[in-house]
Specification:
Layout lengths: L2 H14 L4 H15 L12 H12 L8 E5 L5 H9 L4 E6 L2 H10 L7 E5 L11 E7 L8 H13 L1 E12 L3 H4 L1 H4 L4 E9 L6 E8 L6 E5 L5 E3 L1
Parallel strand pairs: 1-2, 1-4, 2-3, 4-5, 6-8
Antiparallel strand pairs: 5-7, 6-7, 8-9
Length: 231
């Protein structure tokens, strides 16, 4: 999404977040069904920026045998399909508020033997008995609003993790500092890595957390000119 349309898009959803939770949820469901009136409206399957972001996100992952994986805000399942290919034995869930997007995701994910499922729900409304080993939440938290709503969404993400499970948050930089703030302050998880990609068109941060971990954080922040600094 180019800069001006994105600013208008984000302004709209800041306004929507002023509504009560139920009204906000209805608006989000209807808007994203309308947004997906045509296939792949964000060009997630073809845009070079998005494809590069997927690769960078996967590169940031700790090695592990992830048996249960959740993608929050999966849209039409482009990244979900990549996860299914990389972890062919994992049970994978894609979560989204748009039933229209999920219908396309199910078409895309055909032939997976039933181990990939797509659920029509928002983050706070997703009930799951078994926790996940790996949870992705990308380009989503700015839709939930500020303050208490962001706090509850962050707590829900943490609650979905199995012991030792990994949570990956990906959001625009520097707004990610605010959006990831409640998870940063949660004593039950530890940030084990962070990478800031100062892309010329749209910088973003990838923050990786592990439930119950006490390992130090690795921070990698490429400068605009491509130099990499770490601490």
């Amino acid at each position: 999404m180019s800069r001006i349309p994105e600013l208008l898009h984000r302004t709209l959803f800041r306004t929507v977040s002023l509504l009560g939770p139920r009204a906000q949820g209805k608006v989000l469901h209807r808007y994203f069904d309308w947004w997906h009136r045509r296939p792949d409206p964000w060009s997630l399957a073809t845009d070079a920026y998005e494809r590069r972001k997927y690769r960078t996100t996967l590169d940031a992952l700790p090695e592990g045998a992830y048996a249960r994986i959740l993608e929050v805000g999966c849209a039409e399942g482009v990244f979900t399909q990549t996860l299914a290919e990389l972890w062919p034995d994992a049970v994978i869930t894609g979560l989204d508020v748009s039933e229209r997007a999920l219908a396309r995701a199910r078409e895309r994910g055909g032939g997976d033997g039933g181990r990939v499922r797509f659920v029509h729900a928002d983050l706070l409304g997703h009930e799951e008995r078994d926790p996940y080993d790996l949870v992705f939440c990308a380009e989503t938290l700015y839709y939930v609003g500020r303050g208490d709503r962001l706090r509850r969404a962050s707590e829900r993400l943490r609650a979905l993790l199995a012991p030792g499970g990994v949570l990956v948050l990906v959001h625009p930089w520097p707004e990610a500092e605010r959006l990831h703030g409640f998870v940063d302050g949660d004593p039950t998880v530890t940030k084990v890595a962070e990478r800031v990609e100062r892309d010329a068109s749209r910088p973003y941060a990838i923050s990786v957390y592990r439930a119950g971990s006490s390992r130090p954080t690795e921070v990698v922040r490429p400068a605009i000119d491509g130099d990499i600094t770490s601490k």
